[in-house]
Every structure is written in C-alpha cells, then in structure tokens.
Amino acid sequence: MKYGIAIFPSKTVQDQANALRKRYDTRYSLIPPHITLKYPFETNSEEIDEVVQELHKIAGSVDPFYIHINKVSTFEPVTNTIYLKIEPIEQLKTINEQLQQGIFENNQKHSFVPHITIAQDLEHDEFSDIVGRLKMEGFAIKDYIDRFQLLYELDNGSWTVYETFLLGKE
Amino acid sequence: MKYGIAIFPSKTVQDQANALRKRYDTRYSLIPPHITLKYPFETNSEEIDEVVQELHKIAGSVDPFYIHINKVSTFEPVTNTIYLKIEPIEQLKTINEQLQQGIFENNQKHSFVPHITIAQDLEHDEFSDIVGRLKMEGFAIKDYIDRFQLLYELDNGSWTVYETFLLGKE
C-alpha cells in the first residue's frame, strides 16, 4: 500500500489555498491542501505498526511551531507547479530529515522545499498569467502547526488519513 | 467550525465503495467512503480540546471489532440514498450513543443505521435500476475496525481529518 506523510494547515489556510486550487490544481479533489513531509512510499501491513511507532517518536521530539507564508513561487523549469512558499524553519527541516533515515528510505529526489501546491499541470500561457498575478497579490499568512498525518492512497488516487501524530506530545 | 465523526473502512472496502460512488454519489470527491458516527455539529476552537479529550475516553472504552456487510439498502422513501448496510453490532451502537450525550448534543434525527453511502441524489429511474442491480449482486464484506476520525468541513464542502482515535487504546 502506498503511504504519504503531510501536514494540513488550518481551515483558514486550506480554504484560501482551495479557492485557487479549485481552478488551477488537477489534484484538487484528491487531497486537502497540505505540506508534504514525505513523498509516497510503499509499506505493507506488517511494517505499518513499526512506521507508526517511529512517527510517534518523531512527532514527540518536535514542539508545535508557527509557519509563515509570504509569497508564491514555482518549481520551474523542473515543473510548472505553483505553490505557497513556507519560509524555512528548523522544525520542518528536522521532521523531514527524520523521515528520510532509519527505518525510512530516503525517497526525496530534490532538497526539501516546504510548500502548499495551489496549481499544477497548467498550459504555459495560463501558468505565466497566474504566476504574474499571484506574485503581485502578495501573501502574509501565519499558521500554527501542532500535528501531522499519515495517509494512504486509494485506487482512485485520493488519500485517506490513517493516523494523526501530535507534535511534542507522544 | 463544523465537525463530524466517522470511521473509514479498510482501503479494500473504500475502493469497492468508490467504484460505485464515482458514478452515483454526488459527494464522491468531498470525503472518502465512511461510516458516519455523528452527524455534523458546531464546535469552536475553545471547546475542541474538551471534545478531543472526551473522544479519547470513548475510543478507549470500546475494543476493536469486525463489521459485516451483506447487502445494499436504501433510505427511501425519506431519501433515495443507497448504502452498504453494516450489520448491527453492539460496539458501533455504543460509540454512537456516547456521541449523543454528555458534552455532545444529540443531533441525530433518526435511529442509528450504520452504513456506507454509495449513491445519492439520483433520478428516480436510475435509482430503481441501480438498487435492483446491486440487490442481485450481493455483498459479503468483513472488515476490521480499530479507529475513528474527527473531521472538520472546509468551505468547499470537503472534509479534513483533525485527529484519529484508536479503539481500546487511549
């Protein structure tokens, strides 16, 4: 089964992201707005208990924190994904690092860029228009993060939460 | 904010339900296949901690259990919703009852009928066709339930998981 690990920001931030995703993100209906901590990895039903135990440990070792979003950015020229850029913060980096070592395979192809995707798979002209507009708009979002989620993928490409992990508490 | 409480069955059962929901359920993209334990209720950010504490207690008081699904049924003439009928089982009834008392308002209009919705808002002719076909098909599903989820609704009508509660463990 394919699992992934992500943070859902607050409802306010999810609503704000969805207002854009609805029009511009082909994966809008498959998962709520999120910050990916670990990209999809295969785990079978025997190993999942060990994964869960390890995630409790990792969650317990990091206290809740605030994230800040001040602008949109893109992954071009690699992909034309547009995202809300999360300002670099030690706690996010720590969690992400711990999810690429020990019992976890390092399945991260690029350096960790925490973000919330708001658009992907756009035509080139549309991409330029949207990036231009959103860069002018500006963002000033502060959000409190106190948990992350282990999810699994269904056959239709959507994701269901398996378990929640509370930061600084386990 | 509007919260709800539900069980996600296993991936296998969710995939089976989604194969039908994709064509017949207008709410297909808003939430994964689920068994509703408590219908949507309003809670503010000050009260949510108390709700979470109470849910830990309730989850801890009920051991994991198996559900059995042997047929489809409908809520007609009240609505034309078609669902996978969960055979009555004490544990489900116990959890549901505890979610309608104490700090929880009883917001259940009808008696508790545990089910997984697979179709709703159908035209009458389509409804009759589908019910007829699915009743002939027959179902024999057994599924292990060891957790439930507290979710909140986003502005677009979709649901995000807030926290997971493990049965018999808290």
From TrEMBL, chains A, B:
Gene3D superfamilies in the cross-refs: Cyclic phosphodiesterase
Taxonomically, the superkingdom here is Bacteria
Matching InterPro entries:
2H_phosphoesterase_YjcG-like, Cyclic_Pdiesterase, YjcG
Query: Position of motif HXTX 2?
Result: 115-118
| Motif position, HXTX 1 | 34-37
Task: Name one matching Pfam family.
Answer: 2_5_RNA_ligase2
Which residues carry out catalysis?
H34 (proton donor), H115 (proton acceptor)
What family does this chain come from, according to its entry?
Belongs to the 2H phosphoesterase superfamily. YjcG family.
Q: Is DNA repair a UniProt keyword of this protein?
A: no
Q: What is the lineage of its organism?
A: Bacteria, Bacillati, Bacillota, Bacilli, Bacillales
Name of protein: Putative phosphoesterase NP439_17230
- Documented EC number(s): 3.1.-.-
Which keywords does the record carry?
Answer: Hydrolase
